[in-house]
Amino acid sequence: MFIFFGGLFLLLFGRMLSIQITGEAEGKQLAMMAQAQYAREAVLQAERGKIVDRNGEVIASDTLSYRLIAVLSEKATEKGAKKPRHVVDYDKTAELLSRYIPIEKEKIASIMYKAKENNSKVYQTEFGKAGRDINHETMLAIKEAADKEGVTGLQFIEDKKRFYPNGNFASYLIGFAMREENKEKKVSTVGKMGLEKTFNEQLTGTNGKMDFQTDIWGYILPKTEKQIVPAKDGMTIQLTLDKTIQNFVEDAMNQVDEKYSPAKMLVVVANPKTGEIYAMSQRPSFHPGTREGLTENWLNDAVENTIEPGSTMKMFTLAAAIEEGKWDPFAEYQSGQYTIYDKTIRDVKRGGWGRISFLEGFQRSSNVSMAYLLERMGDRTFIEYLKGFGFGERVGIDLPHEAPGILLDINPSERLTTSYGQGSTVTPLQMIQAATAIANDGKMMKPYVIDRIIDPNTEETVENHEPEERKSPISKETAKQVREILASTVTSEVGTGRKFALTGYSVGGKTGTAEIPNTNGHGYMSGDGNYLYSFLGMAPIDDPQLLTYVLVQQPKLEIGQYGADPVAQLFTSIMESSLKYMNIVPENTETSSAISITDYVGKEASDGMEELEQQGFKPVLIGEGGEVSSQYPTAGTKLSKGSIVLLETRGKTTLPNFSGWSKKMVLSFKMLSGLDIRLVGDGYVTEQSLTEGTVINADEPVVLQFQSPQSKMKPSEKEDETEIIGG
């Protein structure tokens, strides 16, 4: 026995010595086996990049969601446990879940039964799309119901979901992203449409990881080092869009949609000085989060679709004639009809208005006046001007799949119909670009929607877009003269644009009534209302700050209504609200009350406050007083009496009464003060969470409730309009 146990001991000792020296057992590295046993890796989820407006307000971002898992393995429940940790009753579980997730109870039960039948060792299963993107409230409701009804084995894993807080908001521009599973069975958020798809690579972050060691029960071992590779969030895409102006557009379109039920609508609002797009929307539209309302059309109509613009094109024919020195507003022509070779064109009023001046002809939107202008300047010269305005080629906007449009230039009749907007095709974006040359004193600006791209991990701007001037075919003098004539279409008793007058602001623009090509490619639609009605306008006309293009296709009109009615409702509502929001002084304000404010930076705040009050302004102090470090608006800005002026100093800020403030003014106050001001709604402030006079720190939140202003429609007299091309 002694020899036996002694030999066994020597054998074990030799084996232990061998393992210690070689580090191997049965040809396997023990250190690596131990490392594999105790090493753990946690994935640090990166967030998809945000899409924000020009002021940093969120349009699209990631938010917390949950993924549902049903644990099927009995091994999940320890022996002697009072409550099972796996699903015990598949049918009962399926019945409960069917009340909270969009899938039938039979299907839920089938998923669990099949998973168990196909693999008896399966540990858990999921429920596809129906079991993902579950919000916090639903997760809590399922847990509560499961506890109450004795359903076990359900678990939730934190996940990410794309969140669109504004609902139907520039949907065809923003697009949408959704969670999907790749070939490796990994789930990630992928852009499927719009900017979400175009900038998917930039928006997609890179997951990080954390390596650490645990014991066999999963607890982190003491004195072990964690090796962390941080996640890198996706880029932030900052747009030129202004959320407030975009909401004015969405609200106005909703009202017109409800009243007139048109087949299509489109609105683009731009800054003619820079080419920045402030708003872009179309109808039908959809909710990017739920895709509710999404049709088979996935195109951004402002960029990817072309139209025959109708009489809005006449403003560019007019500009070409003026630039060529062929415009004589008081010269007369015979209105009614014009024949070239075998083609006869007619005015809206088929019999015409007799011999009238070219100015009156433009105000009445006479097609025949365009024909005589082409005679004067030459139709080939005219086509070269249109090319100079950018028609017939892509604008080059930072959006995909832009259509170039087609300028018909084969024969004289095609050039003639193009002069009043029929035959040749354009994109709404081309119309905006061309109109900037008229609104911006002859300087044509390239439209763009991406302001900059920011790396949120470093706060550095990795891509910055600046205004880009294009070569313009017209001079400053021509642009000014065209604006004056466009204004006369609104103010003249015979003008087609009378419905588009604004309260407090002079406006100029051109109406359009274009035929719609048949879907079979032959001829045009016929019948009442089967037209594309439009208006391309700018205001204030002396120095336009906004340029807006409105299109309404096939509205349902009642007796006494005209195609210009829904277009005018859209245009006037959007422009009046937007100009007020931008603090553009109304032109009916007395000259004496519009004053240029002084530069108060570096001066004593108390002196500035007193001087501003004496001038009739409402000064608001940010900080405790002393030397003014900055102000808003800046020195030289003309303001009407009663306007708010912000003066920034050092120290804690006393809250003012925000009632009636515009969102732009609140955002300026927020930026200068550094306070945590949270904005709810759009329009003007109606409520605030903390009262006037409260002294607060930067970490105390203040919630301001906004309400959109009601649309002010200017009543107009009924007009004798005829639904014929040319309006």
From TrEMBL:
Family the entry assigns: Belongs to the transpeptidase family.
Coiled coil: none
Cellular compartments annotated: Membrane
Biased composition (Acidic residues): 718-727
UniProt name for this protein: Penicillin-binding protein
Top-rank lineage group of the source organism: Bacteria
Alphabetically ordered keywords of this record: Membrane
PANTHER family the UniProt entry points to: PENICILLIN-BINDING PROTEIN 2B, PEPTIDOGLYCAN D,D-TRANSPEPTIDASE
Chain segments carrying region Disordered: 457-478, 708-727
InterPro entries named in the record: Beta-lactam/transpept, Beta-lactam/transpept-like, PASTA_dom, PBP_dimer, PBP_dimer_sf, PCN-bd_Tpept
Basic and acidic residues composition-biased segments: 462-478
Residue ranges annotated for the PASTA domain, each copy included: 591-651
Keyword field contains Cytoplasm: no
